[in-house]
Every structure is written in structure tokens, then in C-alpha cells.
Amino acid sequence: MSLAIGERSRCSRDMLDEDEVVEEEEGEDWKDSKKLHLGPQVPLKQQLEKDKGDESLRRWKERLLGSVDLDSVGEHLEAEVKILSLSILSPGRPDIVLKLPAATKSKGPWFTLKEGSPYRLKFSFFVRNNIVSGLRYTNTVWKAGIKVDSKKEMLGTFSPQLEPYICEMHEETTPSGIFVRGSYSARSRLIDDDGNRYLEINYAFDIRKDWVLPAS
């Protein structure tokens, strides 16, 4: 549950320094002057062939692609993002590793947070086939049917590679007090500039006075 903006999200092996946090109502346009516009999506091999006449642009794209074997991925048009893990990190506590996909039909909460505790989300994922431009995380939270929080956070632009990316979101603190304890529902997504959704989960979580083990 988002309350205040702290430090920016951090992604290992990130292509571009696009980290930016924006809190706004879900459904509004994503307004980011730093957004990278790659133009119409084409296979990577075709992009490199097209840029042969621009040496600096060609070198830039090759640097972003790193050691990826273009013979195996260059003919694919659509990028693939595979989420490997999603965890909740809180200082002094074991990481809460969440099962994916979330058990949306479960009657219990997906996880429980202690009130007044700092925490951050951690994603690990593969990118394959093509460049993913402007990957961002969105999250909306409701309590008793009333929307109480909504945010969007930019992760960055990523090239396909053999190693997984690891992204940690900025640190937040759960609210505290008797009136904020209880059950919440939420929807989280990972979406790119083209509107492709690589993760969409609807789930429930609790805020309680003390920590409890995550639901099995």
C-alpha cells in the first residue's frame, strides 16, 4: 500500500536511466517527458539493418542489446516478459516470497503487513525477443470498496538478455492505527508504453498490529 514517495526504484542491468515515480489516478494518461519513443515495433535484426547508415545509433543499439544472440531472437516482433518472482522486503524480517500467479479465489489474504513498517517490492524477470520500452508498475488499492491509493512507477526500458533483471521498488511505510488495520483488495500490473500487460493480478492483503506468516 503506497503512502509516500521515498527513494527511486532500482533495477540491475537496466538499459536506460528512466526511473521515475508518479502517483496519479488510474486511467489518466501517462505523462513522462523522458519516455523513449522507439517508433513502430520491428524485429531487432531489422532495426539494426535499418540503422546501418547511422553509426552512432547503430553502436548505441548494439550496446543496449549486449551479448544477446540476434540469430535466435532477432526475427521475433513481440517482446516477452516472464515474471520469475515477486517478494516483499522489510528490514529485519525474512523476505516474503509470493506465489505466482496469485490465488485469486482464495478466501484469505495473499500476504499480511505489519502497521508502521517499512517495506519494498522486489521483482525478477526475463526479457526475450525484443526491446521492452517504458516498463512500469501500477497498483490500485481499495478498502471496503473505496479506492484509497493509486500509483504508477517507472521501471525502465529493457533489452532481451540471458540473465534476469532484478528491480526493487522505492521503500514505503504501511500506515498505523486502529482505523487502518483490516483487509484490503488490490490490483497490480506491469505494462509497457505499447499497452502490453505482462502481469495483472487481483488479490487481497491485510494490515495488522503484528507480522504473520504469508498465506500458503
Automatic annotation (TrEMBL):
It holds the Pfam family Rho_GDI. It is found in: Cytoplasm. The keyword Cytoplasm applies. The keyword Cytoplasm applies. GO terms for cellular component: cytosol; membrane. Its main location: cytoplasm. It comes from Colocasia esculenta. Gene3D superfamilies: Coagulation Factor XIII, subunit A, domain 1. InterPro entries: Ig_E-set, Rho_GDI, RhoGDI_dom_sf. One of its GO terms (biological process) is Rho protein signal transduction. Residues 16-29 have a biased composition (Acidic residues). It comes from the Eukaryota. One of its GO terms (molecular function) is Rho GDP-dissociation inhibitor activity. Keywords: Cytoplasm. Residues 1-45 are annotated as: Disordered. This is Rho GDP-dissociation inhibitor 1. Belongs to the Rho GDI family. SUPFAM superfamilies: E set domains.
